[in-house]
Design a protein that fits this description.
Helix content: 25-40%
Structural class: alpha+beta
CATH topology: Putative xylanase fold
Shape: globular
CATH superfamily: Putative xylanase like domain
CATH class: Mainly Alpha
CATH architecture: Orthogonal Bundle
Length: about 325
């Protein structure tokens, strides 16, 4: 919200939205395989956007307010996860608006700080946290970080360059050193099935419903994901990993919907009493905090667990 409300609204058991594609340092529990090695480029993501942002004065004003708040409260002195949580809290009460990225007829670099869908909320908070950690108050740098997180190899190159499936979003951003997928290390099981929800449900996507060329590009993109290793923590094991979760960890809910990997995303929120909540952009309540992560996931029938990616503190070495 524009005024950054001081009272954080906690909402237990908020329901998932109707299924639409949203699309470091953990020891491996005994009896589980080690996660596959991912080659990481040890550089800060590029901070110069390749295309102009589609934004407005409200977002620029909010950006300045976030940076002033972060500087005044010394957010930069905290670890990356704590910065993520503190930044995310600033947006509690902000509106949920679905389909923001698909509103333009052509793929555009949409940047908003007053309305979000669930993935936009996660990548916006991470982009802001990266800038705060590096004490970079430039709005242009923030826009560049948004592009880097949202698009394959960090650059917008049409609709199919967007990381539509969250599993690829994690993989691509892990490869470039922004996040670390800790799902397997937390005891995750292999997730099976082809990622082809978009091509299976062509009529749901106005961009390519009547565009055969773009539809072919979507199918080709999905085919490249067949070899992607995917893991999830079963929902009945979520509470058992609470001691291993950290504030600001990125959580996506794995789904039973055919062809889809995850149905929602948000952040681990560590309560003052040590409880583990879920900070996310909800269709019903906007940006809000569910009091208990496991309860939230268990209340939703189309899910069977979670995927966890940890934001990388790029101020530190990362192996």
């Amino acid at each position: 919200m524009l005024g950054f409300p001081s009272l954080v609204r906690r909402t237990p058991g908020v329901t998932f939205f109707a299924v639409v594609l949203v699309v470091a340092g953990c020891s491996t529990p005994q009896g589980h395989a080690q996660a596959p090695t991912t080659t990481v480029t040890k550089t800060v993501p590029p901070v110069v956007a390749s295309v102009p942002a589609v934004t407005d004065s409200t977002t620029q004003e909010l950006f300045a307010r976030v940076m002033d708040t972060a500087a005044g409260a010394a957010f930069a002195g905290e670890d990356m996860g704590a910065i993520m949580q503190r930044v995310g809290e600033l947006f509690v009460g902000s509106s949920y608006v679905g389909g923001l990225l698909d509103a333009p007829s052509d793929e555009s670099l949409i940047v908003s700080l007053d309305k979000f869908d669930c993935v936009l909320f996660v990548e916006t908070v991470l982009s802001l946290a990266q800038g705060i950690a590096h004490e970079d108050r430039s709005f242009d740098s923030f826009v560049g970080r948004v592009e880097s997180l949202r698009y394959r190899d960090g650059r917008l190159d049409g609709y199919c360059s967007r990381l539509h499936y969250f599993s690829e979003w994690i993989h691509d951003n892990e490869k470039r050193g922004s996040v670390h997928n800790v799902t397997l290390a937390l005891g995750g099981l292999r997730a099976d099935g082809q990622l082809d929800f978009m091509s299976r449900n062509r009529d749901l996507y106005a961009r390519f419903a009547g565009d055969d060329s773009l539809f072919a590009g979507v199918k080709a993109m999905e085919e490249t994901l067949a070899s992607l290793d995917r893991w999830y923590i079963p929902q009945n094991k979520i509470r058992s990993i609470y001691p291993l979760l950290r504030a600001g960890d990125i959580v996506a809910t794995s789904t039973t919907v055919e062809g889809l990997d995850v149905s929602h995303s948000g952040l681990v929120y560590i309560q003052e009493d040590g409880g583990v909540g879920f900070l996310h952009a909800s269709t019903k309540s906007g940006v809000t905090i569910a009091e208990d992560l496991a309860e939230y996931v268990l209340a939703n029938r189309a899910t069977h667990g979670i995927v966890v990616a940890r934001p990388v503190d790029q101020r530190l070495s990362y192996d």
